[in-house]
Amino acid sequence: MSNILIADDDPVSCKLLTALLTKWGYAPKVVHDGLSAQRELCKQDAPELAILDWLMPGLDGIQVIKELRATHPVSYTYVLLLTSKGQKKDILEGLEAGADDYLRKPFDAQELHARLRVGSRILELQNRLIKALETTEYRATHDSLTGLYNRAAIMDRFEQEAARCMRADHPLGVIMADVDHFKAINDNYGHLAGDEVLKQLSAHMKSALRPYDSLGRYGGEEFLILAPECGLNEALSIAERIRSSVAKDKLIIDNVEIAVTISVGVSSAQGLGLTVNQLLRSADDALYSAKSNGRNRVECRGAPEVENPDYVPEAQHVGWLAPAKFTPYRAEI
Q1: Is CATH 3.30.70.270 the right assignment for the domain spanning 151-321?
Q2: pLDDT tens across 84-109, in order?
């Protein structure tokens, strides 16, 4: 049942419209002045169809329509302007104000019904187009297997976050994670199981992040995490929390327990050192080191702000590389 707004100060007209619309399967909401109509149309759950009288107290129908179109609400309202005015200039004024259709009083019930059906078809087509556009945009920016950002989208986010943090002179943490022995998982359990590992692991990692962190599938079994406002200590803490959580909880796939671990590389920079290429290269170098040093561990580029690595749990799984010479990082890393 479609909601529809009736805005008319004539009680007889309102009663007739209500009876007809209810008979046709609509759920009418009646108001008697322009200000009330404007409030109803500005609500988050505003009706998609509206019948407005031209002459009303407060605001007239033309003013209500102009205000509605100027606010650009999220959902579109199809407006039929109902009035005794019938001059060509009146019709043009109503349509140019933003009305979608125009019907003269006294109206013919069958004609009104037909015009409302046209409005409903237009709204249905619009909703289908919006859903198709949203689906297309989602597919263009998200990995079809994991539902995470794809490589292009996470790199776009990387550029945006780097620019924002540089303007604000805030740190940005970068975390690269890679599934250990993923080829062996595919060989031993099959590629479908390998896909399920990536899906479950993605959900697992996402649940361990803050709402404003970004997670994307960088390629294959490799993931990229952006942690805004994170110096090296904070980024290391996030990375170790993810690593230990993954190592602790076995994945259940087709009633089979599969032990999965990840190796993680971490970098962070602020100010002049905050460039996408350098942050990515440092995190990648640290990830390579984590793989080389036994896997299931976190490595970072540069020493943390404190000498003692006990600020993260299971410190034996955390290590760091000397800062790269090419990177003009700040003192904390």
Answers
A1: yes
A2: 887 889 889 999 999 999 999 889 99
